[in-house]
Amino acid sequence: MSKQAPHSNTQANDEPLPEPPGFRESREKIRRLKARSSHGLHALALFTAVSIGAIRDFDFLPSLPTGMRNVLGTPPSANMISTALLLYAFSAIILILSRMMGGSQSYSGMAHVGYLSGFYLFYHLGGVLPDNVWAVFAAGVTVLGLESYHIWTFCNEEIRKELEALDESGRKQRLQQ
């Protein structure tokens, strides 16, 4: 009589055990969570690409026509933009930390990329982007890094719970046989 390995998926006569209820759904959920856990990296990569353009002062884009600049009016001062950037960064960090403490699964990385790109745009229109590009970059890496960490830890915790549930249902099934 052959001994069964502790975590084997076969019976003593080498017949495969039937899948526990919900096994396929759990595997699909784990696959989705693994894919979702890397969304923060996608946002960081996009922000890095935008930042490279900002470091170059968006010299690869065409200039805004004079008529369009007149319609937009006078850009805000650099101090006003910097104050808004500071408020945005602290608000975003506090919101991310509160979502982390609450165990929320919400993620807003791509929205942060859009907001941070807006700060690059305001500084560019104000003609002070070269002096402020590193401030936006530092705020962006901080916010997006924290957001990425939040979604990664959330997904890994959910994956751990799913694996434990699968392991438990597999044990119950083995005990019933």
UniProtKB/TrEMBL annotation:
Stretches that traverse the bilayer: 39-58, 78-97, 109-126, 132-152
Taxonomy, superkingdom: Bacteria
Region Disordered, annotated ranges: 1-24
Keywords attached to this entry: Membrane, Transmembrane, Transmembrane helix
Keyword Glycoprotein: no
Polar residues composition bias: residue spans: 1-13
Keyword Transmembrane: yes
Name of the protein in its database record: Menaquinol oxidoreductase complex Cbc7, membrane protein subunit, putative
Organism, scientific name: Geotalea daltonii (strain DSM 22248 / JCM 15807 / FRC-32)
Taxonomic lineage from the root: Bacteria, Pseudomonadati, Thermodesulfobacteriota, Desulfuromonadia, Geobacterales
